Amino acid sequence: MTEPFGARLRRSMDERGPLCVGIDPHASLLTEWGLNDDVAGLERFSRTVVEAMADRVAVLKPQSAFFERFGSRGIAVLEKTVQEARAAGALVVMDAKRGDIGSTMAGYAEAFLHKDAPLFSDALTVSPYLGYGSLSPAVALARESGTGLFVLALTSNPEGGEVQHAVRTDGRNVGATILGHLAAENEGETPLGSFGAVVGATLGDLSSYELDINGPLLAPGVGAQGATPADLPRVFGAAARNVVPNVSRGVLRQGPDVGALRAAAERFAVEIGDALAAV
Ligand SMILES: O=C(O)c1cc(=O)[nH]c(=O)n1[C@@H]1O[C@H](COP(=O)(O)O)[C@@H](O)[C@H]1O
Question: Does residue 278 carry a pLDDT above 90?
């Protein structure tokens, strides 16, 4: 049986540090790198990030939208990117933020989490806003295939609060409810459950939330969105030991030179390590 995602992630974080670098081929970044905004540019960009990062960071997170933009040829590049990154030792979190009614969610889960799928990834970002229970086919397949999910709980963007901070009739807000579902999913798992939450590093003090879900916390927002590694202990408290901070543009803007990309990731990794040492 495949080792569960949570166990594989814990080991990789311990060996390589917790940094996740995003593969976000924005049109503007392709231009900054001197590439054309076309499939060849997309391929060169993604290859370069994989070459620079996959043998050293714990997690790479390709942002599907920037590949889908080019249709089937973009998806072909995404397939290769995922496969090459995994072959070089990184765990791949596919950032496709899928969410649908249960019967269709099963299809999305097959597309990314079935071991024979061309886009098979170690984990997938999903949206619980059709109801957490709508994700159950993805939870079931992830358990079977040793993969994981990152469920949007408290997102890094300022608009997220209108949904996620909404208070339910039981007095709990929506984001806290999602965290509660994930804690239940991960109960008893060692060393770490496979069902993570997305919690923005930009959100300030989250001490009113139960962030200890016995699963990973993907924390986007470091770098371009204004959060810094030094914010992590303040935002996450003791749960910071399970945080996987994501940096996309903050690293990618240093390309296309492989050495410069590595140096930028290393700077973030060192700052993150220093910030989390005290937790
Ligand atoms: O699920 C995500 O990864 C995600 C959730 C969230 O709340 N906020 C967020 O920024 N992200 C993603 O994380 C990446 C952040 O990129 P940068 O702002 O360039 O570092 C993008 O790919 C976003 O889509």
Answer: no
Confidence category of residue 279, pLDDT binned at 50, 70, 90: confident
273 CA to middle of ligand 1, Å? 21
- φ/ψ of residue 76, rounded to 5: -60, -40
Pocket test for ligand 1, best of 49, 93, 95 (most atoms within 8 A of CB): 95
Ligand 1 pocket residue status of 198, Cβ below 6 Å: yes
Q: Which residue puts its alpha carbon closest to atom 12 of ligand 1?
A: 220
Full DSSP string of 102-145: HHHHHHHHHHHHSTTSTT--SEEEE--TT-GGGGHHHHHHHHHH
Tell me the average pLDDT across 271-279.
93
Q: Kindly report, residue by residue over 70-126, the tens digit of the pLDDT.
A: 999 999 999 999 999 999 999 999 999 999 999 999 999 999 999 999 999 999 999
For the record, the structure tokens of 4 come out as 């569960």
Tokens 């806290």: give the residue.
Answer: 176
Q: How is the chain split into domains, by residue range?
A: 5-277
Contact between 31 and 145 (Cβ < 8 Å): no
- pLDDT tens for 22-47 read 999 999 999 999 999 999 999 999 99
d(CA 233, CA 143): 30
61 is catalytic: no
244: three-class secondary structure by DSSP: strand
Q: Which of 231, 220, 245, 239 is nearest to 275 (CA)?
A: 231
Fold of 5-277: TIM Barrel (3.20.20)
Provide the sign of the torsion angle of the four alpha carbons 90, 91, 92, 93, taken in this order: negative
